[in-house]
């Protein structure tokens, strides 16, 4: 760690860095930032930087509001969009109380704690997110709703299109920040794009997602458009998901791979999927944390609505992608409910905890879904045992409230805060009179 610190201090000096931003995330997944002068960085490393945690969503109770942000030197990067005028660096922080204890409500710590539990069982957790978002002409919208920047579709090549330049600039910026991108392409909705980050350990991936959102927003501002990670911004068009591929490794060996097994999927892999399916409803209020998230889940267009798994079945909640011959390391499972607006630290912690529970308890994996689950009737789905995902945020909160797994993984304070915050959101949503009701009922009744 000392070597890393020295490297950061040397880099700041050599590159003439004028500001260093310390980044951390609140419980809802909003990025927080405080800028310090280069001269303050050494002190921040040794003592942390004090701030009032009661001002941050969910971080403390008001009577224990003093917190310290400790920059993680391994996350230091210079921000490419700041250019050469005032070179600016950034580091992610771990949050502690003044006596050096990890702050119980720091989402990064929640994930670290769950990763430590996996490490005790001999596992390292890797994730690979496919992040979808919409590019709109502006953040304001008229009677027609938000206006996408184009009317292109899946994998379309749009000559001279905004999205090309946008993706090229974003990918280059992410690479400058040390974040490897695997794919980028136009998605199914008008103005919808997808950028996939390369496999990395889950903590690095969660940090990368937070950086990714910032980069996408910055590039959008630069190009005169607006980027949104809202799960379902356009009615009747696909929602924005964050399908996440996951695998557990034991040392250099992929614990999900077993040569000769069905789909080359090991017993560990099967139990992990069973854990995800068993606890999917309990973790939904975190993987799909907004009222709008459920418009995506129940709006069709490849969003999963039912709890089942399948091999290469895009209508299933958990998909086992096609096996690449002679590439045992690539065996993985894909969780398709997660949306682009989730807090990645908390969502990864809960998906990992659910999978580990399946392994610990030896959960049995039910038979796979071979049909298109959306085209079945309700009675056919019932007969096959495919339960529904929650239909609303309120429904998801009822499951979460009863969940020992979620309470234990998040810790009491985060658990209670999420419930409180999301109940408030649901009440505000439920109390409004919507354009739909006025249009349907005002003249008729």
TrEMBL record:
Binds 2 Mg(2+) ions per subunit. Its EC number is 6.3.1.2. L-glutamate binds at residues 296, 302, 314, 336. Coiled coil: none annotated. It is an enzyme of class 6 (ligase). One of its GO terms (molecular function) is ATP binding. NCBIfam families: GlnA. This is Putative glutamine synthetase 2. The gene is glnA_2.
